[in-house]
C-alpha cells in the first residue's frame, strides 16, 4: 500500500477515535487515513517568524509523521488573510461584492504555494500519494510538477465552485484553473460544484471535457474531476450518545427552555452562513403568528472566526445589533426568544444540544457541504426526532432531500418551514428522519476518504 502525504493549511492531530476532543470531522478523517496508510501530514505550523527558512518541524504522531513550516507575517497576511480569505472565500461563496482583488494577495498566495512545494518535495517518495486539501492550495499541484514530482496528486475542494460568470471576475482566473489541472484527481462536494468546474474548463480554457467520466484534458495533462460528498465520523459522533457530558448538555438546554420548542443553529460566525437572515425569518414568523413568541426558543451558537478580516468584524456587529433589536422587541420579563452564544462547545455538548432541539436550522446562503446538518440528524432520538430545515444552497441538500429544503434568501419561505416543522406529526418526522439518518450513517467521512484515495491510487486515466 502506498504512503499518504496530506497537505492542508493547518495540521491537527487527534488523540484517537472517540476521544471527546473539540476537533471536527476532517481532522478525524485525516488522522484515520494517515494511521491506516502511514505517511506525512504537512502544513503551516500556525507560527510566524521574521525570516522564512523553510525549515521543517517533524513530529511523530500515532502511526504517521507531521511536518510543519513557519511563515512570515506578511506571507500570512497576503496568502491566508488575503488571497484565501478575502479573495477566494467570498468569490467562491458567490459574494463578489465582498471579494478583494489585490495584486499583492495573489503574489503572496503564489509565493507561499511555492514555499510549500519547495519544503514538501524532499519528503516525498516515489510511490507516495499526495492529497492536498482546499482553496489555500489550488496551484500547489502545478508547483510540485515544476519541481519534477511524478507522483499521483489529488486536490479536494471543501467549498463551492462558483459559476463561470462569477469566476471570470477574478484577475488571472485562467492561470489559477490551468494550474489546478496538474492534479490527477480533483474532488468537489456536490455535482453542482463539479458541473460548474467542468463548464468553466470547457468555456474558458477550451479544454477537452468528458462530462460522463469527469475527465478534463488540456495541454497533454488529464485530470479527472468527481463529486465526493464529505460526511461526519458517524461512529465517533454516536459514541457521545448516553455520555454524561451529552446528557448534562441536553438537560441544561431542554430544562431551561421550559415548555418552548428549541430551534438550534450552530455555525462559525461567517457571512456565508445566513445568520442575520435567520433573524429576519423569525421576525416574519412572529409577525404572522404572534402565538409563536411563547412557543419557540432560538439558540444560535456562533463562535467568532477570521477576526482579522473586516467583513467578519462587520457580520459580527450586524448580528449583535439584530439580535439585540429582536430581543428588545419580543422579550418579556421572564422570556427571551433568541439566545445568541458567541463561543464554541465540545462535541459531546453539541450532541446534547442537537438532541434537545426540535428544529435544526441550517440555512447558509452558500456552503460547500455543511456538516452541522448531518450532526443534527445523527443526534436525534429515533422515536421522537426533530426536523431539519436545510438551505437548498448547501451542498448537503443534494443528499438530504428529505429535510425541509428552503430558499434561505426568503424570510417567508424559512418562516413557513419553521411553522411546518413545529406542527409536523411524529409519524412524518420519523419517516423523514429515517431516510436522512441512513444517508448520514452510510456516507461517513471514513468512506469519503477511502473513496478519494482509491481513485487517486487508480491507474492514470486515458481519454477515449
Ligand atoms: P465550515 O464552513 O467550518 O467547513 P461545517 O461543515 O458546518 O462548516 O463544519 C463546521 C464544524 O465545526 C462542524 O463539525 C461543527 O460541529 C463545528 N462547529 C461549528 N460551530 C461550532 C461551535 N460553536 N462549537 C463547536 N463546534 C462547532 C468547511 C465548508 C463546509 C464543509 C466543511 C467540510 O465550509 O461546507 O462541510 O468544510 O468539508
UniProtKB/TrEMBL annotation:
GO BP of this protein: trehalose biosynthetic process
InterPro entries reported for this sequence: Glyco_trans_20
Annotated family: Belongs to the glycosyltransferase 20 family.
Name recorded for this polypeptide: Trehalose 6-phosphate synthase
Example of a GO MF term: alpha,alpha-trehalose-phosphate synthase (UDP-forming) activity
Family annotation (Pfam families): Glyco_transf_20
